[in-house]
Amino acid sequence: xxxxxxxxxxxxxxxxxxxxxxxxxxxxxxxxxxxxxxxxxxxxxxxxxxxxxxxxxxxxxxxxxxxxxxxxxxxxxxxxxxxxxxxxxxxxxxxxxxxxxxxxxxxxxxxxxxxxxxxxxxxxxxxxxxxxxxxxxxxxxxxxxxxxxxxxxxxxxxxxxxxxxxxxxxxxxxxxxxxxxxxxxxxxxxxxxxxxxxxxxxxxxxxxxxxxxxxxxxxxxxxxxxxxxxxxxxxxxxxxxxxxxxxxxxxxxxxxxxxxxxxxxxxxxxxxxxxxxxxxxxxxxxxxxxxxxxxxxxxxxxxxxxxxxxxxxxxxxxxxxxxxxxxxxxxxxxxxxxxxxxxxxxxxxxxxxxxxxxxxxxxxxxxxxxxxxxxxxxxxxxxxxxxxxxxxxxxxxxxxxxxxxxxxxxxxxxxxxxxxxxxxxxxxxxxxxxxxxxxxxxxxxxxxxxxxxxxxxxxxxxxxxxxxxxxxxxxxxxxxxxxxxxxxxxxxxxxxxxxxxxxxxxxxxxxxxxxxxxxxxxxxxxxxxxxxxxxxxxxxxxxxxxxxxxxxxxxxxxxxxxxxxxxxxxxxxxxxxxxxxxxxxxxxxxxxxxxxxxxxxxxxxxxxxxxxxxxxxxxxxxxxxxxxxxxxxxxxxxxxxxxxxxxxxxxxxxxxxxxxxxxxxxxxxxxxxxxxxxxxxxxxxxxxxxxxxxxx
Length: 696
What we know:
Mean pLDDT: 82
CATH superfamily of the largest domain: Glycosidases
Helix content: 10-25%
Radius of gyration: 25 Å
Number of helices: 15
Low-confidence stretches: 1-16, 287-303, 599-696
Structural class: alpha/beta
CATH architecture of the largest domain: Alpha-Beta Barrel
CATH class of the largest domain: Alpha Beta
């Protein structure tokens, strides 16, 4: 992926404006972890119908697309990423009719559907793996997976010394003596992508979901499909750790050039649809490699999610932005920004813990989780303040942004789940002679309504449907599959909905403004005030300073990481993440959006948010130079809820979309409602980009 000339920003702007199929270049994508989103039947598991039920919530939030984590039939050895059947819905989560209803409901609301596909491995319950075990060594069935003879006199030693990502040997022996490769759990045997049956079956799977209304795919472990195990130096390489990549693409497992041959085949499928489908790849590759990966010729998109790896340190965050922008420029594409997902501790908690860089990202947070949240002090108020500042900084950047479910509520990590209630395989495997508690703390079912036993995640009684048969109807609902702490009530959607200063309403306001102010021109210019403080006045004594940039239309974002309140550039304040000082300066851990110069029809309206919710407010215009006193919020003190209540006590400037009648699709020129795209079996053909998303 190192050939081709970068697309200029002018060309980027032209293509985005002229081609609605390029909606993804600056989209906001909301990740749904289905089992923990919304339960409609009382089974204790979220279901597909629950996602459809909450489309109005997501439309009001302002997202452009939904990424559905795996919902296939699965034994849940790895949260659904162990797939029994790639072309069906897990009966515990619903039916294909439920999926079809979801796509129609989402499309009617202007929201795209992204399906998570898992091509590196299947479940050991997949019919092809069962056939491979039954057929024996040397059979065509066994060639679909990676089987090898063992080492030693009797072949009783694994073929390599590799440790799997979740711990333990990466090889498991079967009764006839051979070993199969599994880079993750023993229940997840790796596919052999040199086998034509495997390639053909995944093409069939792509068509299946696209024909059922999906708009594209998130590709799990996208960099790991092509493997070279016919060499003598395999023990010199690792599956996990810093040694797992080679800058020249010669690692036997990861980021090999041959993987792009697979995606060229997929691209042909995507181009059969109108508008063409797309893919975004999870690719764990280092910066030195992934900046060279995209090929405009092959329509690959380079993106970054380095925010998800970074501590709240000004210079580290600045570097993540620089790297993401540089990679996009070299690839002729746009960046992708992520702070949290289903695999990492939630960033409200990460930002509330001591900001101490380590050899491996999130090492301190994982140690904190291992000890049930007792090893370090979690300052949730501070973590929330930083998370509010971070989302405004992120959403102002050019490129797409990914939001993980519950992030918009400001949910912290649930650190004290009892060990006997954990589900994540990470918790039950050795990793480098240590135990990790795993990823369940960010997968706890969402709180929708305070004052109910499951905070509105499940109905009070069971209803026939996903995971519930007719004989159980009317019985009390099951407990959520992961326990919800009582403090979840403070973060319930119904409470945050009526709190004008809540995280939820901050996200709504920010996404509304982003849709109005996002420009097709993806250039970014650093402001004069963008600089390091040169002093140890940031988090934990790290160097503080300002991150400040503007977009082509004069929309600017300023974030203060230092202890000294910062002067804001002259202009109109659009939105702030927290209160300004009495004299209108920007405090530490706070972000302000500013219109440095209003252009054309993009003249926002403003209102105070200290009025009763639902009351009509006449728009009022404020500038941070003439009316700084009007932007004060009052002091933050004494916990999250008090912080949010005090936001209401002082006037606060925010964008109010009055009478626009516009969801996340209409008015942006970047969203297309899709119906039957292959009518009569004669698909329309047009160009489409595969984008390579480097995320954690």
